């Protein structure tokens, strides 16, 4: 027990590093927020384009969503970071991570929105169009409100899962929370910083995990 | 164009590094074959245990599952691999990766199986018990098979996610597919091995991603 406290909870050792840890934490928050703000609208936009059912475009969309749902996030981050320079595009690690993660999130979000659009009964389209609404009006006022409501639980789950992927930025030296805490760990030869890092991740993501639990209960159908 | 092909799809280089990639692929497969069944098994056990009438036990299991879902798996891996040796618990890269993947994966599986078990009407257990089946028999032969079938798409996607997560083991220098590709890139100064690894992951997961999409697009709400 003593050993656990000495190695994992010796907060005096990391006292000088709090500013670094906080900077890492806020970088993690910023990256997560940007990933969600870029990824989800992009996914919705792709789902809407897919609705126009242009054959060749839809084949491309399906390839896009399948590819980015199939490759591991860390592989994409490394690929973006190390391969883009061969095109003469130099991108810093921070944006490389956000770019890779928001592309992955957009693919998953598209799939969720698309399933939602398909779940709305076809009669709703027909009824709206027959009252004289245009395609755009039907989509905006009738279909999308329902789609968004049923998409929120799976979308929240995905957004959490992919925001957790911001730690993978540490692999290409983004000074986010994991990167900062693991370098402190090697500096002071004590893993307390890692404990602090883990606790901060829990503090950041647990509320959202609990939110999905609550959503699930609120939407639960009686059996 | 030929410059592009030489850089990203260089067949000479691919032939040169193929043995390395194949070796990495087998390790990815081995890691998955150990981690996935363990995570599924632990997930089922946690889900069944969560049905306990003991409130305190139920709450602590839920807390454990939520915390594990809030911590990024890479953070767990770093804690296990670099933190635990301070307590004299030194694990090799493979076991550390398995432990991190099982801790993370089992929590997700537990939530999925819990939803599955809850989806089976109570009358099924009651009927099974009244025919003289024991609690264990009714769980194993009646409730679990139906519950599993009800959440099959989620089980498949979560398995895919877990196998994708094996790529984080590259961070602790376990030479699975991603790590092998990075080493190959280092030797050849060419990103072809990384592109090849991305394509291998894609081909590995694509069928499963497609099947799940098929299954999920077949749900309809009639309002």
Which secondary structure elements does this structure contain, and how are they paired or packed?
The complex is a heterodimer of chains A (223) and B (223).
Chain A: H1 2-8, H2 18-51, H3 55-70, H4 73-83, H5 93-119, H6 122-130, H7 135-163, H8 177-188, H9 192-219
Chain B: H1 2-8, H2 11-49, H3 55-70, H4 73-83, H5 93-119, H6 122-130, H7 135-150, H8 152-165, H9 177-188, H10 192-216
Helix pairs in contact in B: 2-5, 2-9, 2-10, 3-5, 4-5, 5-7, 5-8, 6-7, 8-10, 9-10
Q: What does this molecule look like?
A:
The complex is a heterodimer of chains A (223) and B (223). By secondary structure, chain A is mainly alpha-helical. Chain A is 78% helix and 0% strand. Chain A has a single domain, classed as MetI-like fold. Chain A has nine helices and no strands. In chain A, helix 8 runs antiparallel to helix 9 (192-219). With 223 residues, chain B is mostly helical. Chain B has a single domain (2-216), classed as MetI-like (MetI-like fold, Orthogonal Bundle), CATH 1.10.3720.10. Chain B is 79% helix and 0% strand. Chain B has ten helices and no strands. In chain B, helix 2 (11-49) packs antiparallel against helix 9 and helix 5 (93-119) runs antiparallel to helix 8 (152-165). At the A-B interface, helix 1, helix 3, helix 4, helix 5 and helix 7 of A face helix 3, helix 4, helix 5, helix 8 and helix 9 of B.
Give the key terms:
heterodimer; A: 223 residues; mainly alpha; MetI-like fold; 9 helices; elongated; B: 223 residues; 10 helices
Short summary:
Chain A has 223 residues and is mainly α.
SSE order of chain A, one letter for each helix or strand: HHHHHHHHH
Q: What is the 3D form of chain B?
A: globular
Largest sheet of chain A: none
How many strand elements of chain B? 0
> What helical percentage do the residues of chain B reach?
over 70%
Number of helices of chain A: 9
Structural class of chain A: mainly alpha
Given the helix and strand composition of chain B, which structural class is it?
mainly alpha
Please give the CATH class of chain B. Answer: Mainly Alpha
End-to-end C-alpha gap of chain B? 53 Å
Which spans of chain A of ≥5 residues are poorly predicted at pLDDT below 50?
A: none
The CATH superfamily name of chain B is: MetI-like
CATH topology of chain B: MetI-like fold
Overall CATH class of chain A: Mainly Alpha
CATH architecture of chain B: Orthogonal Bundle
Tell me the Rg of chain B in angstroms.
22 Å
On the 0 to 100 scale, the average pLDDT of chain A is 92
CATH topology of chain A, anyone? MetI-like fold
Low-confidence stretches of chain B: none
Number of domains of chain A: 1
Provide the gyration radius of chain A in Å.
22 Å
